[in-house]
Amino acid sequence: NLSSKLDKAFKTLKGQGRISDINVAATVKEIRKALVDADVNYKVAKTVTDKIRDEALGKEVLISVQPGQLLVKIVHEELTKLMGETKQDINIKGDPAIILIAGLQGSGKTTFSGKLANYLKKTGRNVLLVACDIYRPAAIDQLKVLGEQVGVEVYAEPENKNAVQIAKNAIQHAKNTNKKIVIVDTAGRLAIDEQMMREIAEVKKAIAPTETLFVVDSMTGQDAVNTAKTFNERLNFDGVVLTKLDGDSRGGAALSIRSVVEKPIKFISTGEKMEAIDLFYPDRMASRILGMGDVISLVEKAQQAFDEDEARRINQQIRKNQFNFDDFISQLEQIKKMGNIKDLVSMIPGVSKMMKDVEIDDDAFKPIEAIIRSMTKKERANPDMIDGSRRRRIAAGSGTSIQQVNNLMKQFGDMRKMMRSMSQMGSGKDALRKMK
Ligand code: GDP
Ligand code: MG
């Protein structure tokens, strides 16, 4: 029943206003595991989580948000920062702008070249695709099919076995035909080999691309880092394209690559269709890596929906020991405003701690609300004046029992005391603002 639910909830109302060593240690361990599971390089994961621990310790916590959730938010912000904070566009200045595509065989270079051509063409630019994979005749056909599909010309010299020469000829052709962007698709090997590295380095030197993009399969996990390192040493590329993110890969490679080679990820590829290309948004990838998108969005939702001024006013009331039934109802209303009560109730000041671990649905609040609504204005503002005869009247008016009214009064009194002592501890004073 309601009373035992509240009882149980109050037991969990032990001040947890600050992120302590203990809950940080456990959570940090969990986060590190989540990162490694998401294919983040172990060393990178350790550095990240050490940083996060230092950041989190002692940070003041909004009373409405549990420390664990705040910690996740800190982690999310840290990962976002590590991956470059904001999206980074490719450089397409130049006449023509030249984009060189490099990477291992099967990483998705040719597919991405088609997508990028499509993407840039849609911005109104005149694009040329160049087939520089001289080792597999099928590679030329593959690019031609994609070119046709997206309506972009494909330059190829099927008889020519000199990639550098083909690339140079293609640039000349682009100039002759007034193309503004040239995308050069190159050959790849199953593993890094010297001949391939030399060839692509020579192509790069010959055509001086505006932008060199390294394409890497996100499913290759830890290997991706080593490949990226080797390519970067030889090519000093400008950006990374992470492919096959439509699979189960959680994208940890993004974080590792970014940390190890310090080059921005610029695009992600999420399928075989020509439309399956996206700019890289560090914050979205951070959510994906954490696999905790729900928690994060809930925290953010709670922050958005919860009226800050009202929260501050209620905090004031608590401090002055004047928290009353009007404030209580106001909190309940805010909870409802936020939608799914089960998900959100754990984030609301006072009520959150009170209701923690309690089975909650909309109905759980009904008797409470009925009781409070049966109080007079004066009674709500001054709970102390509600004596025995008033309780009888309130019970009758709300269709509840005197027992229920008594219980609520008792719980409310306890809650007030608890809130007061919590607020004296200083938790969450201006934390709402701090978290923004
Ligand atoms: P390349 O050897 O680097 O040129 O790689 P390809 O572009 O030929 O791609 C190799 C394979 O991966 C092909 O079967 C593509 O259809 C597939 N592929 C490429 N990008 C993606 C992607 O983002 N998602 C999925 N699921 N498959 C992809
Ligand atoms: Mg290819």
Automatic annotation (TrEMBL):
EC number: 3.6.5.4
InterPro entries linked to this entry: AAA+_ATPase, P-loop_NTPase, Signal_recog_part_SRP54_M_sf, Signal_recog_particl_SRP54_hlx, Signal_recog_particle_SRP54_M, SRP, SRP54, SRP54_GTPase_dom
Hydrolase is among the record's keywords: yes
SUPFAM superfamilies: P-loop containing nucleoside triphosphate hydrolases (SSF52540), Signal peptide-binding domain (SSF47446)
Keywords from the named record: Cytoplasm, GTP-binding, Hydrolase, Nucleotide-binding, Ribonucleoprotein, RNA-binding, Signal recognition particle
Enzymatic class: hydrolase
PROSITE patterns: SRP54
CDD domains cross-referenced by the UniProt entry: SRP_G
Reaction(s) catalysed (UniProt annotation): GTP + H2O = GDP + phosphate + H(+)
Residues binding GTP, per UniProt: 103-110, 185-189, 243-246
Record domain SRP54-type proteins GTP-binding: where: 264-277
Predominant location category: cytoplasm
SMART domains assigned: AAA, SRP54, SRP54_N
UniProt remark on domains: Composed of three domains: the N-terminal N domain, which is responsible for interactions with the ribosome, the central G domain, which binds GTP, and the C-terminal M domain, which binds the RNA and the signal sequence of the RNC.
Subunit record text: Part of the signal recognition particle protein translocation system, which is composed of SRP and FtsY.
Family in the record: Belongs to the GTP-binding SRP family. SRP54 subfamily.
Role played: Involved in targeting and insertion of nascent membrane proteins into the cytoplasmic membrane. Binds to the hydrophobic signal sequence of the ribosome-nascent chain (RNC) as it emerges from the ribosomes. The SRP-RNC complex is then targeted to the cytoplasmic membrane where it interacts with the SRP receptor FtsY.
Protein name: Signal recognition particle protein
Species of provenance: Rhodocytophaga aerolata
